[in-house]
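Preliminary data (for renewal application), glutathione complex.
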Amino acid sequence: MSKPVYHIVGSYLSPYVRKVLVCMGIKGLRYTIDPIAPFLGGDDFEKLSPLRRIPVLIDGPRVINDSSVICQYLEDRHPTPSLYPADIGERAQARWLEEYADARLGEVIVAKMFYQRGPKRFLFKEDLDEASFNHARDVDLPACLDWLEPQMPQDGYLLGALSIADLSIASFFRNAGLVRFEVDAARWPRTAAWLRRTLGLPEFVRLAKIEDTIARVPLTEQATVLRELGEPVTQDTLGTSTPRKGVMRLD
Ligand SMILES: N[C@@H](CCC(=O)N[C@@H](CS)C(=O)NCC(=O)O)C(=O)O
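Predicted structure:
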């Protein structure tokens, strides 16, 4: 039986969306995409995503929210290649590292850094909170790296084989890179080497080319550029041209 084509709602610049797209790429799954920023979602978007967040995965009549839930769903539906360790303890550890990335790296890299430099400025026309950005870059993120460094492997991936833990954490550091934060290899050598390895995976590399192209394109024009790049962007969209603040708090 041929594999289904899933529909994704969410921008390629979101680390949560990237995690899902990489997971799909590794599993050989095809998708169509409505690449909207959550802040441009209209009423129909909110019906599907009550927290007004991306990604959303649509599988026929089923709507699934939250990148971790989506990745687990894809794993359950398409168990090979597996992105979750077979050992129960290691599987729990992989999920914890994923949660750490989604929660803490999300707060520091997305809310305090990426959102500040991107949507807050260009969509909501608000000033950058320089002090908060600098604190995230100089204090919070280094503290995260200090915590991650001793857990990083000399070679290979966090829990031996590549897992959801690697995809999650690397996805967030890619966004840090987009706001010019580089992991200092002298201070965090294992993390820097692991990040190079992980972001060097073909699926991250494929997406990075797309991300680099659209990063400076206004949000409302990104779909056109993505179509030109050959991405499977649908004509139907849940996006509007009127920005709205989210449901959950962002800086
Ligand atoms: N726990 C969610 C978080 C998703 C999330 O926060 N996505 C961001 C995009 S990078 C978003 O939609 N933010 C809009 C908001 O929080 O209002 C997941 O893993 O999918």
